[in-house]
Amino acid sequence: MALVCLIYFLKLTFRNRLTVPIPAYCLLILSSCGALHSQEVEAEVIDLSEAIAISAIVKKLDDIVIPNLEFADTPFDDCVAYLWAVSIELDHNEVIPEEKGVRIVSNAQENAENSITIRLVNIPLKNALRYVATLGQTEMRLEPDGVVLVPIAGPVDMLTQVYQFSFDFVEASGEKNARMTLEKAGIEFKAGTDVVFNSENFQLMVRNSENEHAKVRAFLIATEAEED
């Protein structure tokens, strides 16, 4: 059981780049194998009940799919409120009415009026939230009672842009995901960066430095030319 939870929480932290506390017994295992030397791990001790609550939230973020999501110069706080509301509406697997959906709030008051413009289809709640969080210059933090969007603690010179492809370039590349595809093309993703690809409408969202964005634009032009 401990090993399963260890693997699960490591996947959350490293693969999804979510800030998530780690249970005490997992910290003991990590300590014994020297893994706590990594700066990627936020060593905050929580009890097992909180770990279970967080795992349930993660499952809902994956399971809830939004058929159509469109914001046009919508204030960041309104986007956050909408995602909370729509998560309740689309949480068909939860049988207890009071526990439907995922509580999503923001404590980044300085970002409240940032405007968001996106159009996504058949997007998992997790990815929709990542889009909104990144475009709103925030990052996601998982807590036992929901998701909190907090100001980005990384470099301040990061830019967020959405690129439109005409096909699924990830599938065409043979790689597992967009990040691996772009890294293979020489684009670097350091701390504080992010990338999300929506295979339904071929939109790629990237948060990175201007230098790396230039590489993404060059990749887009070259990839589209090869497809033609």
How would you describe what is shown here?
The strands form four sheets. A three-stranded mixed beta sheet has the order 4-7-6. A three-stranded antiparallel beta sheet has the order 8-10-9, sandwiched between helices. The protein has a two-stranded parallel ribbon with strand order 1-2. With 228 residues, it is α/β, with parallel strands linked by helices. It is globular, with a radius of gyration of 18 Å. The chain contains eight helices and ten strands.
Helix amount: 40-55%
The main β sheet shows up as:
3 strands, mixed
Q: In percent, how much strand structure appears in the residues?
A: 25-35%
Q: What is the subunit arrangement here?
A: single chain
State the order of secondary-structure elements, H for helix, E for strand: HEHEHEHEEHEEEHHEEH
Helix count equals: 8
Strands of the widest sheet, in order across it, are: 4-7-6
Radius of gyration: 18 Å
Low-confidence stretches: 1-17, 20-45
Mean pLDDT: 80
Distance between the termini: 51 Å
How many strands? 10
Shape designation: globular
**Structural class estimated from helices and strands:** alpha/beta
